[in-house]
Structures are given as structure tokens and as C-alpha cells.
Design a protein that fits this description.
This protein has 625 residues and is of the alpha/beta class. Helix content is 33%, strand content 15%. It contains 21 helices and 22 strands. The strands form six sheets. The protein has an eleven-stranded mixed β-sheet, with helices on both faces. Strands 1-2-5 form a three-stranded mixed β-sheet, with no helix packed on it. Strands 6-7 form a two-stranded antiparallel sheet. A hairpin with an 8-residue loop joins strand 21 and strand 22. The protein is globular and about 70 Å long. The two termini are 42 Å apart.
């Protein structure tokens, strides 16, 4: 039975082709038909009343509250517009639709594998709050935590996450938002700029603007739910962590939040030229345009309409079509067709790979975030908590046939354990360097508020004769979200790492992480957690202990340590690595590590790439580029 169970689990794990499957737990909330509205949850918003229901840990919940108009028709690829008022009360016991995306574990397993789901009418949010008496609401002034989901900015939805434990046990308000993803969230083109009546509409950063609009909604409404609009913490994982960093960068988000938590994020932003140029337009040794740049997508659309034409004829047709006509065509095209074209263009079904967080010069500055971090006056400088997981990359490598074969068609078998661990170490370390160490070093050298860093190390997964999850997954990407929300009911996919033997350790670590996160929301310093009894978490410093290691007692417990990772050391190690000894391997690794799919990494250096002997390997030729 053990073998059968393992095979079934792994079969499920490998059945989904989405590269972002593992980034969140699956929602365990009962179906809407089972939720009974709670008359004591009636709340006023600026647009009308909402009625929610009661949930675990003595919380109340409101689901699917719109924070902007549906971005349909002429509102597609425009900044979000304010919500219209409604009469009476709005039923807030049902989730809003996910934004249009391909099926994945990040869409709560709606729809069918490989298919498209969701709606353009998706700009809604969910709220969990401690149950309060009516007379307590206005005076409670609880800290507010706004969660930005992950999913590569191509997928994901707020409904994946259950915030009852975090909100109820830590006495905070938790808001979870949807925002436009993929081509509908980030799309930069001259035709849009020509039609724009303001710089927001012209920016191409519509998903970013959605997040900002949701924060405006929180500012204007959260007091009715017991929250303090003057104490808002934004937090997010993976692409959500990247979007947290984008809020630090955006002048339009100034004053809308007061603390920030980036979990496995990145500071990378995308040059506007990369978001728009064709993928055969080159500069130095880098492909100038993304395969799914805006001009690339328009060409695909024209080709679908005129399949008899050559690529040269298609490009000429695009160039000679007036921008106002181009925009009409784009807005009239079904969102699903746009997504399908993008997916087909990558050669990976369900994966679209488009520009995200674009340096338009208004919503997102032209400079890199690493440049802005040199001067607190140039970005939204607030207390920052940032961290990564020790083995970020293993969850992706575990599903890559380059590194792992499948015995009996389902059971993963690492082809070369030494190479597997080495590649994971490079990518995971570089993730930490770019998201944690390098920003922390810059920020701590200025008069900015403090930075608090962590590394999530929990790896007490089951090991048996059929499967060693500690080696295969380790402390992988997305794994910490179960602990930070204190929710292990979601089951898949990280349910495979949970058993009775590690249950107590998981529960203890979850309470610690919720306590640290909540105390940071209260005070801007995780300190000893809300209980005041946890291991003291101190700010990043140039010498001595600089980072909190988060782990079960079996793994050493929560403790401060000195663990420094910098990009320069990673580059030196790569240049002489004996495991990745072939020139092509090193070139591919350098491109993957420091270019990040042409998203304009601050750490890419064309001269260094050439010095490795990589002139014969244009970065666009690599599989992961």
C-alpha cells in the first residue's frame, strides 16, 4: 500500500505541466453552497455594504469584493477604474473569478489540465479578520497585511490561500488580492500609448496598477473591517515577492503601505524595448526582444488571420497597419486566443513567458531597483523583511527530464545527484543573493529603515525505500507559504512532504513564522514574535549574524546566523567549477543565473559572458532562455 500511495502521489505531481505548480497550497475552503452568511459581518464600503460569513479561528471572511471595474472592452490594457456603487448589500460569500490564465495548481485546480480558465472580470479581493463586536470595529485599528499571490505573473489567484489561522491567531487583518496576469497584465506597445489619455494607461504595467488600486481600496475601506489604514504591510511570494519589490520602486504606491515582505522574490524589471521588440532584434550578445513581445504577439495574430503569408509579409503588414487599427484588433481578440498564441510560441503548452514589471518611466522607474536602493529618497523606503528558501530550484528540477528520469513512468530518479545538487545550489544561492543579500547590503548602508533577512530551511520530508523527498525537494520554492499561513489543509502538492512524524515540528514552525510575520506587521521589526518568546530576530548588519534561519527543532530551530551570499562569489565559483566543466554548461548557467530570461537583471555583464568563452553561444539559443 505504501508503494501504491507513493506512485499515486508522484503520478499526480508529474501530471501537471505548469512550471509553477508548487508555489502554493490548494484552498480547503468549503464550497460556497455550504457557507452561511453571518448577519454580524455586514460592513460598509465606499461603494455599498458587503455581507460575509464566519470561519475558523474566530474569524470573519468576505470574498470576491471588487476593488476596480472589470477591465473589459475598451478597459482592456488600461489602468483600473473605480468600482461603481451598488444598492443593498453585496453577497461576499463566494470567491471572485481568477484572472485569465492556463490551468495549474495555482488556479485552485479549476478547469481541465492544459486548458484556459478564468475571466477578465477578476479584480476582486478577499478579507479575513478577527471577529469583532460592532462597537469594537472603529477603535480596533488592527494591522493590515495585503497578500500578493505568486505564479510567475502568468498565473495564480487569491483563492488558493486560507488566512483564518494567521488572522485569528495573530489578531491581524489579511487581505488577499487578484490582479491581471500574463498578456493582460503586462503589455507595452505604441498603439496603447497613442490611445492613452494618461501616463498610467500608457505604461504597459496593468497588473502593477491593479495592485496599487487594491491598496487604494484598502486605504479607503479597511477601517470598516477593523483595520488601520495607516499600518499596511504588503507581502507576497515568488512573483508576488517580485511585485512587492515593484511597489517599493513605484512612485504611485507611495504612502499606500508601510512595511514590505518579499518571499522568494526578485528585484528584476524589464526594459521597455525588450517588452516590445521582435526577438531577432539584438544588442551585444543578448536577444533584444522577448519571443512573446507585444510586436511578436501582434505578428502571431496577423499570421493566424493570414496563414498563407510569409513572416516577412506579416511583419510588413504589422508595420503598415495604423496603430489605432492595431489596438482595435487587439482589444477585439478573445483573451483566450491571445494566450493560446503566446503558449504555442514558447513550444511549452500552458506556458506563455511575457514581459513583466516594465520600466516605463512612470509606474516603474527607468532605473533598476538596485540603483534606486542607493538612495532612500528614490524609492518607497519602509522596513523590509526579505528571504528565500534554501533549495528554491529543486522543485522545478524535480520535474525536468534533463535532471530526473521516471521509473515505472512516475517515480522520480535523479540522474546525477552531484550535478543535481550543484545546479540547485547555484540557482538557489543566486536567488538569495539577488533577492536578499545584494539589496540588504545596499539598503543597510544608507539611512533607510532596517532590513530583516531569512532563509527557510525546513526539509523534514519523508524518506523511504521508494522516494527520498529530502534530496529531491529539500526546502523548495513555495514551501514556506503553508507555514506562514499556518495552513496544512491544502494537501497537494506539498502534502507529500507532510506526515505524522513531522507534524509537531511543522506546527511549531508555523506558529513561529506567523508570530514573526505578524510582529513585523505590528512594529516593523519581527523581534521575538507576537508572543515575545521566540528567538530574537535582529536586522541585517555588515558583520556578524545577518540572517534568521527558519527550521524545525530537528533541523536546529529558529536561529540567527551569518550566511552571506554575493553575486561576485557565485561568478568566480562558476568560472572554475569542476562539475559544470564544459564551456557550454557554464555559458548556459551564466545566462540563466544573471539574465533571468531577458528581464533585465542588474547583474548581467556581457563582457564577463564573453570572457567565459561564450561568444559561440548566443543566450537565446539555450533551452531555458
Amino acid at each position: 500500500m505504501v508503494v501504491v500511495g507513493v506512485l499515486l502521489i508522484v503520478s499526480y505531481l508529474y501530471s501537471n505541466k505548469s512550471p509553477q505548480l508548487f508555489s502554493a497550497s490548494v484552498a480547503a475552503m468549503p464550497n460556497s453552497a455550504m457557507r452561511e452568511a453571518d448577519p454580524h459581518s455586514l460592513r460598509d464600503t465606499v461603494n455599498g455594504q458587503v455581507l460575509g460569513f464566519t470561519d475558523a479561528y474566530n474569524t470573519q471572511v468576505w470574498l470576491g469584493i471588487p476593488y476596480a471595474q472589470a477591465p473589459l472592452g475598451d478597459l482592456r490594457w488600461r489602468a483600473p477604474q473605480p468600482v461603481s456603487d451598488w444598492q443593498g448589500f453585496r453577497d461576499a460569500t463566494k470567491y471572485g473569478e481568477p484572472c485569465v490564465q492556463y490551468w495549474s495548481g495555482l488556479a485552485a485546480q479549476e478547469g481541465e489540465s492544459g486548458g484556459l480558465l478564468g475571466s477578465e472580470d477578476c479584480l476582486s479581493l478577499n478579507i479575513w479578520a478577527p471577529r469583532l463586536k460592532v462597537e469594537e470595529i472603529q477603535s480596533s485599528k488592527l494591522p493590515v497585511m495585503v497578500w500578493i499571490h505568486g505564479g510567475g505573473n502568468d498565473s495564480g489567484t487569491a483563492k488558493l490561500y486560507q488566512a483564518h489561522h494567521l488572522a485569528g491567531s495573530q489578531n491581524v487583518i489579511v487581505v488577499l488580492i487578484n490582479y491581471r496576469v500574463g498578456l493582460l497584465g503586462w503589455f507595452s506597445h505604441q498603439s496603447i500609448r497613442d490611445a492613452a489619455s494618461n501616463l498610467e494607461d500608457a505604461s504597459g504595467n496593468f497588473g502593477t496598477l491593479d495592485i496599487i488600486q487594491s491598496l487604494k481600496w484598502v486605504r479607503d475601506n479597511i477601517g470598516s473591517f477593523g483595520g488601520d489604514s495607516g499600518n499596511v504591510t504588503i507581502f507576497g511570494e515568488s512573483a508576488g515577492g517580485r511585485n512587492v519589490y515593484s511597489m517599493l520602486a513605484s512612485p504611485l504606491a507611495k504612502g499606500l503601505f508601510h512595511r514590505a515582505i518579499s518571499q522568494s522574490g526578485t528585484v528584476d524589471t524589464t526594459l521597455q524595448t525588450l517588452a516590445e521588440d521582435f526577438d531577432d532584434e539584438r544588442h551585444t550578445n543578448v536577444v533584444s526582444g522577448l519571443k512573446n513581445s507585444s510586436n511578436g504577439i501582434i505578428s502571431l495574430l496577423f499570421a493566424a488571420r493570414s496563414p498563407e503569408q510569409t513572416p516577412a509579409q506579416i511583419r510588413s503588414a504589422v508595420a503598415n497597419t495604423p496603430n489605432n487599427e492595431l489596438l482595435k484588433i487587439l482589444r477585439a481578440t478573445d483573451a483566450r486566443q491571445l494566450m493560446e498564441l503566446a503558449s504555442q510560441n514558447t513550444g511549452s503548452p500552458g506556458y506563455i513567458k511575457v514581459a513583466r514589471v516594465i520600466r516605463d518611466g512612470h509606474v516603474i522607474p527607468k532605473q533598476s531597483l538596485m540603483t534606486l536602493f542607493n538612495d532612500p529618497s528614490q524609492y518607497n523606503s519602509v522596513p523590509l523583511l526579505t528571504g528565500t528558501n534554501r533549495d528554491e530550484q529543486k522543485v522545478f528540477m524535480a520535474r525536468d527530464p534533463k535532471y530526473v528520469s521516471q521509473l515505472l513512468g512516475v517515480l522520480p530518479n535523479i540522474r546525477d545527484p552531484l550535478r543535481y545538487d550543484r545546479v540547485s545550489e547555484y540557482i538557489s544561492s543566486n536567488w538569495k543573493a539577488g533577492a536578499v543579500d545584494e539589496p540588504a547590503k545596499l539598503i543597510s548602508q544608507t539611512k533607510a529603515p532596517p532590513v530583516f533577512a531569512y532563509r527557510f530551511d525546513w526539509d523534514d520530508s519523508p524518506v523511504n525505500f521508494a522516494l527520498d523527498l529530502q534530496q529531491l525537494l529539500g526546502a523548495s520554492h513555495g514551501m514556506e507559504t503553508n507555514y506562514m499561513f499556518g495552513d496544512f489543509q491544502g494537501g497537494m502538492p506539498f502534502g507529500i512532504t507532510h506526515d505524522k512524524k513531522n507534524a509537531q515540528g511543522r506546527a511549531d514552525l508555523a506558529l513561529s513564522m506567523m508570530g514573526y510575520w505578524a510582529e513585523f506587521a505590528y512594529s516593523g521589526n519581527p523581534g521575538k514574535g507576537r508572543s515575545g518568546s521566540l528567538a530574537p530576530w535582529t536586522a541585517w548588519q555588515a558583520k556578524g549574524n545577518n540572517i534568521m534561519l527558519l527550521d524545525s527543532l530537528k533541523g536546529g530551530g529558529n536561529r540567527m546566523a551569518e550566511v552571506r551570499t554575493n553575486v561576485a562569489d557565485i561568478k568566480l565559483k562558476l568560472a572554475s567549477d569542476e562539475v559544470l566543466s564544459e564551456t557550454e554548461d557554464r555559458c548556459e548557467a551564466y545566462a540563466f543565473l544573471f539574465l533571468h530570461g531577458y528581464q533585465t537583471s542588474h547583474f548581467w555583464n556581457a563582457d564577463e559572458y564573453s570572457a567565459l568563452g561564450c561568444d559561440a553561444y548566443p543566450v537565446g539559443s539555450f533551452r531555458n532562455s
